[in-house]
Specification:
mainly alpha; 3 helices; about 0% strand
């Protein structure tokens, strides 16, 4: 699992933002790193993409919760 966490970290560092928070990883980004990391066949790629996608969903959920908490904290400071 540590290997996939490293892969996710590599891809995630190049993630785009829309100004309102982080965007999901694009499939293009996942494809770009899959083959160099050794996931070359269709089955290997699907396995890799599924794991990275699940990790990204967890990360986005965390980022959204963090943003809500940060907004609530800023609101309390203004009061």
């Amino acid at each position: 699992m540590a290997y996939f966490l490293e892969c996710f970290s590599l891809i995630s560092r190049h993630r785009q933002s829309n100004g309102f928070g982080v965007n999901p990883l694009s499939l293009v980004d996942i494809v770009a790193v899959a083959a160099p990391l050794g996931f070359k066949t269709g089955d290997e790629f699907l396995f890799f993409a599924e794991i990275i996608g699940e990790m990204d969903r967890e990360f986005l959920d965390y980022a959204q919760e963090r943003q809500k908490l940060d907004s609530a904290t800023k609101s309390k400071r203004k009061s």
